[in-house]
């Protein structure tokens, strides 16, 4: 096929048309009783990954009770509850799904079914879905509201090109994801082989660190958090080998100085020591001033004796994770 060129930054939308959502897609509302069906595949919202077109997990009828929704191959299963999680996956078989989803089927007279999954994952659609959700604890979309929402759709000569371009890009992304998975598996094998040698080692981390200790919650708790200032790292910010600072808290320089014993320095290994995320660790390399709360432990190595990267990799390895009860007793 000849190369398709589309300037996504300067799309000509002069001939795009506006349609209601119920003109773009059909809501499939066939009901299924899990205790009385020949269908073998159940898809719950927990089986759909955020921001992914592909459904890679599944359940069985034995997993659930109560009325569910039937879907057919190539339908879109869209999580109408907590739409901010951006869950919309393509069914690759017939089955049934959670009633907290909508089963949607593209209208080929309006939009190419190949383009429809990308439309569903667009910021335009997802942001609208979030805006029309109702409820505070579990915001949910009602079909009666969604069907009246209007969106601009390109003509056939454009949406076919867009679909081809986007699926080509999606194929490249999936290949990269698979390569990443395989590299992680290879890395884990290497780590297991290497770290196995330390199973009976008499060495303890305290022999190679200048500091092992956690922080505290500042007086006043979250009420003293600020919009900016010194980063206050909590357990949700520490992942396996990296940090998620999207919701990092901030404290004042004054509080930071009062909590001087838990100041974070570059190359400190931060380790979660309580809760569901216990055992996750990462090396701090930001260079910005930071502090930690009582759920995060600082491991400051004597770098001539122990490389902090080695320590963090050890802790995050499968072998290291089995040692977490011992590691958290080193304090």
UniProtKB/TrEMBL annotation:
One of its GO terms (molecular function) is DNA binding. GO terms for biological process: DNA restriction-modification system. InterPro entries: Restrct_endonuc_typeI_TRD (IPR000055), Restrct_endonuc_typeI_TRD_sf (IPR044946), Type-I_RS_S_subunit (IPR052021). Pfam families: Methylase_S. Residues 14-171 form the Type I restriction modification DNA specificity domain. Keywords: DNA-binding, Restriction system. Belongs to the type-I restriction system S methylase family. This is EcoKI restriction-modification system protein HsdS.
């Amino acid at each position: 096929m000849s190369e398709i060129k589309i300037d996504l930054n300067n799309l000509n939308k002069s001939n795009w048309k506006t349609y209601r959502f119920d003109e773009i897609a059909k809501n499939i509302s066939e009901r299924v009783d899990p205790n009385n069906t020949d269908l073998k595949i159940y898809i719950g919202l927990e089986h759909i990954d955020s921001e992914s077109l592909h459904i890679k997990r599944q359940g069985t009828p034995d997993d659930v009770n109560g009325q569910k929704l039937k879907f057919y191959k190539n339908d879109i299963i869209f999580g109408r509850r907590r739409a901010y999680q951006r869950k919309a996956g393509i069914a690759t078989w017939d089955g049934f799904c959670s009633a907290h989803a909508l089963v949607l089927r593209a209208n080929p007279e309006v939009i190419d079914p190949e383009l429809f999954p990308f439309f569903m994952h667009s910021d335009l659609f997802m942001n609208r879905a979030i805006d029309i959700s109702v409820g505070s604890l579990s915001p949910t979309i009602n079909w009666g509201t969604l069907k009246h929402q209007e969106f601009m759709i390109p003509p056939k000569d454009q949406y076919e090109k867009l679909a081809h371009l986007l699926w080509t890009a999606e194929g490249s992304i999936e290949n990269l994801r698979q390569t990443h998975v395989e590299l992680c598996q290879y890395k884990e094998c290497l780590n297991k082989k290497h770290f196995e040698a330390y199973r009976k080692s008499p060495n303890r981390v305290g022999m190679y660190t200048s500091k092992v200790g956690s922080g505290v919650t500042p007086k006043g708790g979250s009420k003293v958090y600020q919009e900016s200032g010194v980063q206050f790292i909590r357990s949700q910010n520490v992942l396996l080998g990296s940090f998620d600072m999207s919701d990092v808290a901030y404290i004042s320089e004054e509080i930071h100085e009062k909590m001087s014993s838990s100041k974070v320095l570059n190359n400190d290994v931060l380790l979660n020591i309580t809760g569901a995320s216990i055992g996750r660790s990462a090396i701090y390399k930001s260079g910005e001033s930071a502090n930690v709360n009582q759920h995060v432990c600082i491991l400051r190595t004597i770098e001539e004796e122990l490389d902090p990267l080695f320590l963090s990799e050890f802790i995050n390895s499968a072998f290291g994770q089995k040692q977490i009860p011992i590691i958290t007793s080193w304090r």
